[in-house]
Design goal:
About 35% of the residues lie in helices and about 25% in strands. By secondary structure, the chain is α+β, with helices and mostly antiparallel strands. A 5-stranded antiparallel β-sheet has the order 4-5-10-6-7. Strands 11-12-13-14 form a 4-stranded antiparallel β-sheet, sandwiched between helices. A 3-stranded parallel β-sheet has the order 1-3-2, with helices on one face. The longest helix is centred in the last third of the chain and has 24 residues. The protein is globular and about 60 Å long. The protein binds flavin-adenine dinucleotide. Flavin-adenine dinucleotide binds next to strand 2, helix 2, helix 7, helix 8 and strand 10.
């Protein structure tokens, strides 16, 4: 039985937001549907009468490198449309080089059928603190483009990824808004990133813990001068381990002793929970250490390549 009355496939953001405004509470955005349809089936969300499918919007399925016209110094952004699937990210060879942690985080989402349709926009908009693609993007210090329809006009604004999360499963978007793209600075010489997660063998959706790091080394290749570390789930929204980042960048050298200090800082700042079907708080605490010992040396090794 179809649970909705109308299914629209707009070709532009203007059209999509106009439809959402027209049907108001009765309409929802759908992309791959791998979260939304399950929620409708399980009764976790009230089935909307109208679904607005955003995957046919021009540019939504594209991954591209664009010049930063504001800086005008040759630097670039990697721009990923909100309708890009995890499979597209996984298969994109440029992303593998300049955003390895994102490639690695998208590669483990669900199985091939899920990755074929599930989008990065849906992963972020669903706002779960453990969402894998979201952790990959956060580690790349990504920004998100939010489109807003007001008084008949659509405006677009880039904002930090973290700014759109309000709590577990809740984003800050209003009825007249949607996500259209993500962008990040590609890793270049002296930089590297990596992602790993711990998953129950029989697990199908979210990990016990996912963790990624991006590092920038100095010219000697011995010292980390910039770092981003993201962990999920480690709080109500996707989590940046900022205290651990500070420990890493204030050390004179990258070595095992520093990793131990980084672990202690991350464990101290993370707000871990026991979840009934996945893991205890204590287990997650230990897994922060395991994952940092795997991910940090890998990111540093890639930065030295
Ligand atoms: C079997 C299975 C395994 C899974 N495994 C994993 C896993 O290992 N790791 C993981 O992180 N996730 C996993 N998931 C969850 C899911 O696949 C991802 O979260 C997926 O990326 C959601 O994208 P979607 O396109 O399917 O979103 P949809 O279900 O279409 O939408 C999700 C939410 O986002 C909103 N939305 C979608 N696009 C936009 C937009 N452009 N702007 C604003 N709002 C938007 C929708 O209204 C809805 O509220 C799994 C799901 C299944 C069914």
């Amino acid at each position: 039985m179809t649970r909705w009355k109308e299914y629209f496939t707009p070709a532009t953001v203007d059209e999509a937001l106009t439809l959402l405004g027209q049907y108001n509470e009765g309409a929802r955005i759908i992309a791959g549907g791998t979260d939304l349809i399950l929620e409708m089936e399980s009764g976790h969300t009230i089935a909307p009468e109208v679904l607005v499918d955003v995957t046919h919007i021009g540019g939504f399925n594209e991954i591209r490198a664009v010049d930063d016209t504001e800086r005008n110094d040759g630097s670039q952004w990697i721009v990923i449309g909100a309708g890009v699937t995890h499979y597209q990210v996984e298969r994109n060879s440029i992303l593998g080089q300049v955003g390895a942690c994102l490639t690695e985080s998208c590669r483990v989402v669900g199985g091939p059928q899920v990755r074929n349709v599930a989008t990065l926009g849906g992963n972020v908009a669903h706002a779960l603190p453990a969402a894998d693609g979201t952790i990959g993007l956060l580690t790349l210090d990504a920004q998100v483009e939010v489109c807003t329809l007001a008084e008949g006009h659509v405006t677009r604004a880039w904002q930090p990824l973290l700014s759109i999360f309000a709590g577990p499963g809740k984003n800050n978007l209003t009825r007249g808004q949607m996500l259209s793209a993500f962008r990040f600075r590609p890793t270049s010489v002296g930089e590297g990133s990596a992602f790993e997660r711990i998953m129950r063998p029989q697990g199908v959706a979210l990990p016990i813990l996912g963790l990624a790091a991006r590092v920038h080394l100095d010219d000697s290749g011995e010292r980390v001068v910039k770092a981003v570390i993201a962990i999920g789930p480690a709080g109500p929204i996707p989590f940046r381990a900022t205290e651990a980042e500070d420990v890493l960048t204030s050390a004179d050298q990258f070595n095992d002793a520093v990793i131990a200090d980084v672990i202690a800082a991350a464990q101290g700042q993370a707000r871990l929970r026991t979840s009934k079907h996945r893991a205890s708080q204590d287990y997650r605490h230990e897994m922060i250490a395991v994952l940092l010992r795997r991910v940090l040396p890998k990111a540093v090794e890639r930065a030295r390549d």
